[in-house]
Amino acid sequence: MTQSNRKNWDTYFMDIACMVSTRSRCTRRHVGAVLVQGKKLLGTAYNGAPMGVPDCSEAGCMVSEQYEMELVDGTETMVKKQRCIRTIHAEQNLLLFTDRSDREGSTVYVTDEPCWTCANMLANSGVVEIVYYRPYRKDMEKVRSMMASQGIVFRPLESYEPPQETMITIKD
Questions:
Q1: Residue 170 has pLDDT above 70, yes or no
Q2: What residues contact residue 69 under an 8 Å CB cut-off, 6+ apart?
Q3: Which residues contact 60 (CB under 8 A, 6 or more apart)?
Q4: Cα–Cα distance between 45 and 97 in angstroms, integer?
Q5: Which of 23-32, 81-90, 158-167 has the least mean pLDDT?
């Protein structure tokens, strides 16, 4: 690969997040996250059950249903949301296994737009930017609004093509 064909930093770090996601054993969604400060990789994580606990591929998903009021076409509507609660999300694992001092002023690359809980945790973690590949529609509007109010750069990686070997079918 010549210098002119070299991947840009966003693609490089998102490719790493996608590769990290292949460690996940969740049957619904593989998510990977990486912590970057400047151009230095400081940590990686993926979604999965706590260490020593059967994961989704062994024990099945532990789906929780919750209802939430949302504005749909100008009307308040009660919407049912299903979430697997067996796994610790990639962003949560990233925060558990990195130091606060490393997170200050850093960027998180994550394969999927963070859910509400992960967005709250990231907003309080010291990171200044979150870059993601796939949207997560269940919490999209409130997450984006909160990130804007906190001054955290929150951006999708437009026109990104993940490495083919990292792709799975997502079950929402």
A1: no
A2: 76, 77, 78, 79
A3: 27
A4: 8
A5: 81-90
In this structure, are residues 10 and 131 in contact, taking their beta carbons and an 8 Å threshold?
A: yes
Candidates 3.30.1300.10, 3.40.50.1370, 3.40.140.10, 3.50.50.60; correct CATH number of 9-46+87-155? 3.40.140.10
Which residues are annotated binding-site positions for Zn(2+)? 89, 115, 118
pLDDT at 2 over 60: no
Q: How many CB atoms lie within 10 A of CB 113?
A: 21
pLDDT of residue 29: 86
Return the pLDDT at 70.
Answer: 74
Catalytic residue from among 58, 91, 158, 165? 91
Which of 20-24, 83-87, 115-119 is least confident?
83-87
For the annotated binding site, the residues are 89, 115, 118
Q: pTM of the prediction? A: 0.85
Active site residue 68: no
Rounded to an integer, what distance in angstroms lies between the CA atom of residue 34 and that of residue 13?
Answer: 7
Separation in Å, CA 132 to CA 38, 59, 61, 108, 156: 17, 29, 24, 8, 5
